[in-house]
Design a protein that fits this description.
The complex is a heterodimer of chains A (329) and B (262). Chain A is of the alpha/beta class and 329 residues long. Helices cover 29% and strands 28% of the residues of chain A. Chain B has eight helices and 13 strands. Chain B starts with a strand and ends with a helix. The chains are: A alpha/beta (329), B alpha/beta (262). The complex binds flavin-adenine dinucleotide (FAD) and adenosine monophosphate (AMP). The site of flavin-adenine dinucleotide has 27 residues of chain A, from helix 6, helix 7 and helix 9.
Chain lengths: 329, 262
């Protein structure tokens, strides 16, 4: 019975990097408490996924396998996860703040009647094996420290890309156990009937290490080509401000910000984006921020690591060219 | 069809943020409060469903202090038929589960087919209330929905995930949370604003809902903010000078050697 439990998200056997980040944080918390770590995977045919998790040092990897759970369903996964965790003495349950984690965690928390802190950027252990979490609020304009009541396990979802992924250990000692969860199938009412993949083959901004974004300054959708070229050269994703999306230059799924997606890549390049607070809300926890803007007074420069004041239509293609040359070397 | 929309009044996203005297809440001084933008989307969807079916009622329910009545009026002006304002000193300090308990108790008083919420209340950004409400009412839910179809006694919803949309079908009654892209909310016209004045608003307190006082508010909260701080400002970075060629050359060098991100 482990003190710390982590939910490892997988889809079709693929483990998300965000899930590995959660395993590493779980390991840290378990060590701070002198306890053990259990990683839980839910689905079917989970052996390959389990093999990816084991080197990150969980003491137990538990596979909750059931044919009905081959596709994610929030009611099915809630039953499996809460049913299992309720029978352990777990003190903390961590999930990634992905689409799946953000859907599943509140339902599990309500079923277990425990507290949940969403989209945290830091967790730490307090006295008596308590946990404290920090999360951005008011569009990142403030940071809230969250404390939990005594109900256990305390729960948190962790913002992807903020935490380090963790170092694999040489000889993992963790044990893999398979279990079949008991399910009431009549209570799996919302069911997946299809997936519409984004046909463009583009990388989702939330998944990318590098995001190159364009703003209103792009003027039309053709001009976004230079943003796409730079993103392609860097192996990154294309983002956009709301002004660019509202003007129809690019689809909404690219929007970064308060009413778009929250991203935290290693590198964020903002091209012709002024840096309105609602845009900053979506990208200010990026590790390195580059701003390219012709207005030296634009607020984006206040949070940029590096800035170039100038015309993006000259600078962006030069940058792409330079990167491609480097890659060729 | 009985449609219920949960609405939260939130600080305007453009508001300047200052920390309150208690060190753990927003200083409301000078902040304007508005209908949560995602809840406007939820309401718009409910109005469209009612219009398409040519029948039905849209009720908007909000939990919060007296000043929330202004936001409730805006919803009635957009076209909602009636409002429910859940107001009690004991509700103050509720976390998401407490909020969901209060909303669940109020909504369960009458039959309903569909409950719509925002995917997130901006400001506190918990993104928890919808799934929690569904759990408490033992209903299916679909979260972060960008397209919704009602087909008789069931729904088909398109839910946004990383790089794809999940197509999900569920029987009614159900809970749906709205994401941007679902629709463009309408503006309330003068006619709507006038009509809103005559629409009924029910005000209910803890006792009306028959909830135990220790399950809501600060007392019932399982999570609470103990501190609110302004973020450490990122140290202003380097502006790279010179001709575009030189600046770009320097940028690439810094990204490789100093930041080590490419
Ligand atoms: C409730 C609400 C939610 C919102 N949510 C979001 C959100 O999720 N995401 C978001 O981005 N916004 C959001 N906004 C909108 C936000 O307030 C801004 O309006 C928007 O971010 C501005 O986009 P922009 O920076 O592209 O455009 P602008 O503010 O118009 O900035 C364009 C910039 O381009 C520069 N420029 C122009 N030409 C060139 C050139 N040739 N070379 C270099 N630079 C050039 C200009 O100097 C300027 O700084 C929201 C607003 C509200 C009210
Ligand atoms: N006090 C409240 N009154 C009514 N609805 C609420 C309240 N708080 C949250 N909600 C609903 O729950 C959604 C998600 O809020 P949250 O979980 O706080 O991010 C909001 O968009 C509202 O639809």
């Amino acid at each position: 019975m482990a003190e710390v439990t982590v939910f490892v998200e997988q889809r079709s056997g693929q483990v998300k990097r965000a899930a590995l980040e959660v395993v590493a944080q779980g390991r840290g918390l378990a060590d701070a408490w002198g306890g053990s770590l259990e990683a839980i995977l839910i689905g079917t045919d989970l052996d390959d996924a389990a093999a990816k998790v084991l080197p990150l040092g969980p003491d137990h990897v538990t596979l909750l396998e059931h044919p009905v759970l081959s596709d994610y369903s929030v009611e099915g996964f809630t039953q499996a996860l809460s049913g299992y965790v309720a029978r352990t003495n777990s003190l903390a349950l961590l999930l990634p703040a992905t689409a799946m984690g953000m859907d599943l965690a509140p339902r599990v928390a309500a079923r277990l009647r425990v507290g949940l802190a969403s989209d945290c950027i830091s967790i730490s252990s307090g006295p008596d094996r308590t946990m404290e979490a920090v999360r951005p609020v008011f569009s990142g304009k403030a940071m809230a420290t969250v404390r939990f009541s005594s109900a256990r396990p305390v729960m948190a979802t962790l913002r992807p890309n903020v935490f380090p992924p963790g170092e694999p250990v040489a000889n993992p000692a963790g044990k893999i156990t398979k279990k079949t969860p008991e399910l009431d199938e009549t209570k799996i009412r919302a069911r997946l009937t299809g997936i519409e993949k984004d046909q463009s083959g583009e990388i989702d901004v939330k998944e990318a290490d590098i995001v190159v974004s364009g703003g209103r300054a792009m003027m039309n959708s053709e001009n976004f080509g230079i943003i796409r070229d730079l993103a392609a050269a860097l192996g990154g994703a294309v983002g956009a401000s709301r002004a660019a999306v509202d003007a129809g230059f690019i689809a909404h799924q690219h929007q970064v910000g308060q009413t778009g997606k929250v991203v935290a890549p290693k590198l964020y390049i903002a091209c012709g984006i002024s840096g309105a607070i609602q845009h900053l809300a979506g990208m200010s926890s990026s590790k390195v921020i580059v701003a390219i803007n012709k207005d030296g007074e634009a607020p984006i420069f206040k949070i940029a690591t590096y800035g170039i004041v100038g015309d993006l239509f000259r600078i962006v293609p030069l940058l792409t060219e330079k990167i491609l040359k480097l890659k060729a070397e | 069809m009985n449609l219920v929309v949960c609405m939260k009044q939130v600080p305007d996203t453009a508001a300047r943020v200052a920390i309150g005297g208690d060190g753990r809440s927003l200083d409301p001084e000078g902040v304007t409060f508005v209908v949560n933008p995602y809840d406007e989307i939820a309401l718009e969807e409910a109005l469209r469903i009612r219009e398409k079916l040519g029948e039905g009622e849209v009720a908007v329910v909000t939990m919060g202090p007296e000043k929330g009545s202004a936001a409730l009026r805006s919803c009635l002006a957009m076209g909602a038929d009636r409002g429910i304002h859940l107001q009690d000193a004991a509700f103050q300090g509720s976390d998401s589960l407490g909020t969901a308990r209060i909303l669940a108790a109020a909504i369960a008083r009458k039959p309903f087919d569909l409950i719509l919420l925002g995917k997130q209340g901006v400001g506190t950004d918990n993104s928890q209330t919808g799934p929690m409400l569904a759990e408490l009412l033992d209903l299916p839910h679909v979260n972060v929905v960008v397209k919704l179809e009602i087909m008789g006694k069931s729904l088909k919803a398109f839910r946004q995930i990383e790089g794809a949309l999940e197509v999900i079908e569920a029987p009614l009654p159900a809970v749906v949370t709205a994401q941007k892209g679902l629709n463009e909310p309408r503006y309330a016209g003068l006619k709507g604003i006038m009509a809103a004045k005559k629409k009924p608003v029910e005000v209910l307190c803890l006792r009306d809902l028959g909830l135990p006082a220790d399950e809501v508010g600060e007392k019932g909260a399982l999570v609470r903010w103990t501190q609110l701080e302004l973020p450490a400002s990122r140290s202003s970075g380097k502006i790279l000078q010179g001709e575009p060629e030189e600046a770009v050359e320097e940028l690439v060098r810094l990204l490789r050697e100093e930041a080590k991100v490419i």
